[in-house]
Each structure stands twice: as structure tokens, then as C-alpha cells.
Design brief:
By secondary structure, the chain is of the alpha/beta class. It has two domains: about 100 residues, Aspartate Aminotransferase, domain 1 (Alpha-Beta Complex); about 250 residues, Aspartate Aminotransferase, domain 2 (3-Layer(aba) Sandwich). It is about 35% helix and about 15% strand. It has 13 helices and twelve strands. The chain has a seven-stranded mixed sheet, sandwiched between helices. Helix 3 packs parallel to helix 5. It is globular. It binds pyridoxal-5'-phosphate. Pyridoxal-5'-phosphate binds next to helix 3 and helix 5.
């Protein structure tokens, strides 16, 4: 029934790790929240527009069970990560140590290397399964300053063991940053329970909220320790003070905001995140796991992502070895939308992928499954 809420193509759409489908109600909501304040009256639209961004933060707070003031809009994760690490004096000294995985999204590694050229980045090798606490354990040494963790890894379908990692990183006296780009909307995350130091995320994938509406969340305990370098009048405690000699950081996560903000992406995303906050990530995950289970049951050894609900992301990664190209062609022929990475093809069932979609997928796979 959820498929009625979304604009769905004729194909079986399983690319939710890339771009989620738009809600049918989105055009009207966007018109009302973005165009109407601009076109529909002679007033200056900023009051209405800024309340749209407030709503974006409020919907994120509902989704992740936290406070709106701890969220700051960002254009994308890469830029948010650059701003974040440059704001932390602890990371700006030569030899600061950062731990991450070779399976993190490459852009995150690029941003860290360029923003902190004197830091030492230690990579957990790509072949190690980062869904296992014992793999992390071997790398969590007491000289680390920052641990970068993806809640879900986009190409391996692994889920990081956050409940183990976040307290462990804190115990070591290091900082944690969790990348939720590939998890937000499908893997439940309660920030008031987990309490990492920072999270970075976007809205374009499972949250179906389009590109350009990313966000940085800062733990209340960390706010005072952050001194963003990339600022603008919206990072000021009072943007309308207009005294060029007097900059004071905003006392919320908005200290990371910058100059005149964009509004349109947040108008789109706030509407969609509101839908998913209302539905609840548990419901999406339950449905996702049910569909994943059916795929796991059928494909046998072709499954290269974990088949354990605590260790898998929302995506099944399938690799049929020598037959891989043939399988991809057969699925494309059957009008099934998916994509392929080195590790395997990526298949991501969302709340709107119902019985018919699953039957079409599983039938197309039958000739290749023993
Ligand atoms: C885990 C993960 N992090 C980050 C990103 C994107 O980062 P950015 O918003 O900087 O493009 C992606 C995109 O696919 C991703 O899968």
C-alpha cells in the first residue's frame, strides 16, 4: 500500500541506496513551501523560507530522537566533514590519528586527507568485515583521535556495530563521526541512546528527500569545543547584528551553517523526512528485512553481504561469479533497476517494493540459483 504514496516507475525500482523515489505529495508541498512565499505575495520570502529550514531540523530531530538545535543543514557530507574536522583543534595538530575503513565512501577519505594534510589516516583493509566488533577491536588503539564510521557501507552491504563502537571509542578518549548517508531512513538510530560525538547524513537515498539536503549533528557536549573556520553571517549568534568587527558563534549547531543558505533542497527533504519520521524507521527496516530474507533464501552463495539483521545494511550485494554479467543482463531485460559495483550488484528493497516487485525479481533470478 505504501507504493501508492510514491511516484513509482514501471520498472522494479531497487536503487534506493542511490536515489529514493519522490512522494506523490511532494510537488504540492514544494509549491506551498518554496514558491508560494516567493511568487504569491509581495513580501520578502525569507521569514517563510527560514521556517522551512527550521522544519527540516525538527523532522530530523523526530527521526533520530534528538533536538533540532543540534542539527545544522549542509550541502553534502564531504563539505560537512571538511567543516567539522577543521573546527576541531585536536585534529589540526600534526600527527593526529584518524581511523576509517577502505570501504568508507571515497569522498569521505578525500575530504579528510585534504582538510587535514598533516593527519595520519589508518585504513582498515577493504577485505575485513567491518560489521564484526572483533575486526574493529584490533585497530582501536589509544593513540587515535577520531574514528570515522559508516553506519552502513554502500558497496559491501555491511552495517557497523555502532552499539559496540561508539562507547568503545569514547572509552579510548577519541571522537566518533558516524556517516548515516546509506542508513538514514532504513536503519533505526536513536541519538539520545547512542550518543556519538557527530553524525553526517543526507536525504537523497532511503529518505527519498532529493540531493542537496545533507546535515551535521553535533552532540551537545561537543558544541563548545567546535570552532568552525568556514563561517558566514548565518553562523553568527545574531545574523542581523551586522557589525563587521564582532563575530560570535551561534550557540547551536548552526555555528556550522555559513553564508546565505539554500532553501529549495530543504523544503523537499523536510516533507519527505516528515513522512518517514511519522512512519518510523523500525517499520521500514522490518519490511526491508522481510524482502531481503526472501532474496537471501533464494540466491544461496551468490550473497556476499551479511545475512544477519544486526550486521547487514538495507542492501543485498549479489555476486554470481562468472555468470555475473549474464545475470545483470537478464535482470535489466526484466526491467529491474539496480546497479553494479566491484563487490557485486546492489539490490535495495524499500517500503514501496511490494509483492509484485519481489516476485518479478525472484523469478528473473531463478535460472541462476541452484
Ligand atoms: C556511505 C556514504 N557516505 C557518503 C556519501 C556521499 O557523500 P557526499 O554527500 O559528500 O556526496 C555516500 C553516497 O553514496 C555514501 O554512500
Amino acid at each position: 500500500m505504501y507504493q501508492n504514496d510514491f511516484e513509482m516507475p514501471k520498472s522494479v525500482y531497487l536503487l534506493n541506496h542511490s536515489v529514493g523515489r519522490p512522494l506523490k505529495s511532494l510537488r504540492q508541498a514544494f509549491d506551498e513551501r518554496f514558491f508560494l512565499p516567493w511568487q504569491g505575495s509581495g513580501r520578502e520570502p525569507w521569514g517563510d523560507w527560514l521556517s522551512v529550514v527550521e522544519d527540516f531540523r525538527a523532522q530530523l530531530a523526530r527521526l533520530f530522537n534528538s533536538e533540532a538545535r543540534l542539527f545544522c543543514p549542509q550541502v553534502n557530507l564531504s563539505s560537512g566533514l571538511t567543516k567539522l574536522v577543521q573546527s576541531l583543534p585536536r585534529l589540526r595538530h600534526p600527527g593526529a590519528v584518524i581511523l576509517m575503513s577502505e570501504n568508507d565512501f571515497p569522498s569521505m577519505g578525500f575530504a579528510l586527507q585534504q582538510a587535514l594534510p598533516e593527519a595520519q589516516i589508518r585504513f582498515i583493509p577493504a577485505e575485513l568485515d567491518v560489521s564484526l566488533p572483533e575486526v574493529w577491536q584490533a585497530y582501536l588503539t589509544d593513540d587515535i583521535d577520531l574514528v570515522f564510521i559508516s553506519h552502513a557501507y554502500s558497496n559491501t552491504g555491511q552495517q557497523a556495530p555502532l552499539d559496540y563502537l561508539v562507547p568503545k571509542v569514547r572509552q579510548l578518549g577519541a571522537l566518533s563521526v558516524v556517516d548515516v548517508a546509506q542508513a538514514a531512513g532504513v536503519l533505526p538510530l536513536d541519538l539520545s541512546v547512542l550518543e556519538p560525538d557527530f553524525i553526517l547524513g543526507s536525504s537523497v537515498k532511503w529518505l527519498c528527500g532529493g540531493p542537496g539536503a545533507a546535515y551535521l549533528w553535533v552532540n551537545a557536549e561537543q558544541l563548545a569545543h567546535c570552532s568552525p573556520q568556514d563561517v558566514g553571517w548565518f553562523s553568527h549568534e545574531n545574523p542581523f547584528e551586522f557589525d563587521i568587527y564582532h563575530f560570535r558563534y551561534h550557540d547551536s549547531a548552526l555555528k556550522f551553517w555559513g553564508g546565505t543558505p539554500s532553501v529549495a533542497p530543504y523544503a523537499i527533504a523536510a516533507h519527505s523526512i516528515g513522512y518517514f519520521a511519522e512512519l518510523g524507521a523500525n517499520k521500514v527496516r522490518q519490511h526491508n528485512l522481510m524482502q531481503l530474507q526472501r532474496i537471501w533464501n533464494q540466491v544461496g552463495e551468490a550473497l556476499v553481504s551479511p545475512s544477519d539483521s544486526a550486521r547487514c545494511s538495507g542492501t543485498a550485494i549479489l555476486n554470481f561469479g562468472a555468470a555475473q554479467q549474464q545475470v545483470v543482463e537478464a535482470l535489466t531485460q526484466a526491467d529491474i533497476s539496480l546497479d553494479v559495483r566491484k563487490q557485486g550488484m546492489r539490490i535495495s528493497p524499500h517500503i514501496y517494493n511490494g509483492e509484485q516487485d519481489m516476485q518479478r525479481l525472484l523469478e528473473a533470478l531463478v535460472p541462476f540459483c541452484r
